[in-house]
Design goal:
The protein is α+β, with helices and mostly antiparallel strands and 141 residues long. It contains three helices and five strands. The protein has a five-stranded mixed beta sheet, with no helix packed on it.
Length: 141
């Protein structure tokens, strides 16, 4: 078996492992292995092939790590206004129960309302800050 074939088999195995596990790092490793195959095809020595494959895979993983650090994960759907269009809308709460819950009429139905932690329970308009199932978490406007 030629070194080129071995490199491509290893790259293919890394892609299959990535598809089965969903780990992007295996895909980056597969790109490094593919660069080793290209180096072998160009006639580089086995040492050069190994160094190039390691350098490419390592550089890609470092770049991905730095990119993820600069771009943190999105908010959960219950707090993301791009996913849940109810966030930021205003509801009228007329009466609060002693436990910090209430009901309100919103979008043609009765909704359970809970006060956001750290807020005082005062009747009046409230802004929806989170939606948990059929319960609206609100804060005073």
């Amino acid at each position: 078996m030629t070194p080129i074939t071995l490199w491509w088999i290893l790259a293919g195995a890394a892609v299959v492992a990535e598809l089965l596990s969903g780990t992007l790092y295996l895909l980056l490793l597969a790109a490094g292995l593919a660069s080793g195959a290209l180096a072998a095809w160009l006639g580089a020595s086995i040492t050069s092939q190994l160094l190039l494959a390691s350098a490419v895979a390592g550089a890609l993983m470092l770049a991905w790590h730095l990119w993820r650090r600069r771009h943190p994960k999105d908010q959960p759907a219950s707090q993301n206004p791009d996913v849940n269009l109810d966030l930021g809308q205003t509801v009228q709460v007329d009466h609060w129960r002693p436990d910090g819950s209430a009901t309100t009429h919103y979008r043609g139905a009765q909704w359970a309302v809970q006060l956001q932690p750290g807020q005082s329970a005062q009747p009046g308009p409230h802004r929806i800050v989170e939606v948990l199932g059929s319960r609206l978490i609100v804060a005073p406007v």
